């Protein structure tokens, strides 16, 4: 059985970085190298703890998710902020349009990405350019915000954000950083871009994790159950705290500190 301390450390890193604009994949690759935790089992472990982080965001946005699925109705006082006064305008088509480009490109380039881009060097390149892109997105964002609330995001803006999400196929290039900065460039407000980024992360990560898990499920053994469950629970709890904290601090700190 793997060292439980390794599960805790990797779980904390996943929870802190998955939805913050700093790239979880990049940091897990680098920390895995430092901890000497690499190989097929490490890859499978990363999938498991990503599912823990996904669950945390699903818990935070459960009302919005039910609304998107047509179950219940999100009232204005339950919206993510006071600017979301048009409940129900955001629908599944927005989510599909934003997820489709990266899903298609990810399937086409999957073998290339896993074969050539999962090294410490390429991760460092992704981290640097991801930080630069966030600074560019923040400095070049439109002065007049067209979509202050997530329910005001248009289909065109959803497509733009989806295209920017493709940048995150390069390990180290933050997915949330790419989508939030892309949203700013498309005229979406900070909080709306962040909420939309988190919402489209759920189907993206479930699809990616499910695809990888199907290929590596035979690696899971009963002897590693405690190790994997520990990582999952740690990632869930830390991600829950990290996302709530990030949403509270976003208006004050913007993207620049995360880019640096």
Automatic annotation (TrEMBL):
Note: Bacitracin is thought to be involved in the inhibition of peptidoglycan synthesis by sequestering undecaprenyl diphosphate, thereby reducing the pool of lipid carrier available.
Protein name: Undecaprenyl-diphosphatase
Transmembrane feature ranges: 47-69, 90-110, 116-136, 157-173, 193-214, 226-247
Domain of life: Bacteria
Subcellular location field: Cell membrane
Keyword rRNA-binding found: no
Organism listed in the record: Paenibacillus glycanilyticus
Function according to Swiss-Prot or TrEMBL: Catalyzes the dephosphorylation of undecaprenyl diphosphate (UPP). Confers resistance to bacitracin.
Pfam families documented for this protein: BacA
Catalysed reactions, as listed in the record: di-trans,octa-cis-undecaprenyl diphosphate + H2O = di-trans,octa-cis-undecaprenyl phosphate + phosphate + H(+)
EC number annotated for this UniProt entry: 3.6.1.27
């Amino acid at each position: 059985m793997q060292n439980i301390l390794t599960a805790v450390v990797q779980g904390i890193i996943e929870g802190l970085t998955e939805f913050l604009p700093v790239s979880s994949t990049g940091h897990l690759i680098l920390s895995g190298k430092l901890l000497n935790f690499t190989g097929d089992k490490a890859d499978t472990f990363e999938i498991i703890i990503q599912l823990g982080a996904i669950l945390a965001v699903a818990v935070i946005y459960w009302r919005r998710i039910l609304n998107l699925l047509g179950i219940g109705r999100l009232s204005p006082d339950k919206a993510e902020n006071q600017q979301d006064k048009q409940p129900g305008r955001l629908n599944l088509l927005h989510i599909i349009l934003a997820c489709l480009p990266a899903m298609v490109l990810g399937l086409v380039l999957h073998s290339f990405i896993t074969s050539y881009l999962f090294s410490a060097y390429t991760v460092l390149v992704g981290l640097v350019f991801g930080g630069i892109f966030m600074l560019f997105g923040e400095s070049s964002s439109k002065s007049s915000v067209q979509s202050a609330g997530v329910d005001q995001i248009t289909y065109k803006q959803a497509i733009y954000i989806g295209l920017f999400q493709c940048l995150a196929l390069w390990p180290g290039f933050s997915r949330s950083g790419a989508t939030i900065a892309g949203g700013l460039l498309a005229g979406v407000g900070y909080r709306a871009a962040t909420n939309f980024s988190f919402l489209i992360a759920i189907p993206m990560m479930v699809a990616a994790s499910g695809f990888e898990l199907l290929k590596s499920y035979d690696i899971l053994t009963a002897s590693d159950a405690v190790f994997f469950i520990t990582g999952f629970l740690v990632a869930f709890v830390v991600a829950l705290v990290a996302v709530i904290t990030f949403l509270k601090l976003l208006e004050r700190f913007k993207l620049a500190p995360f880019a640096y």
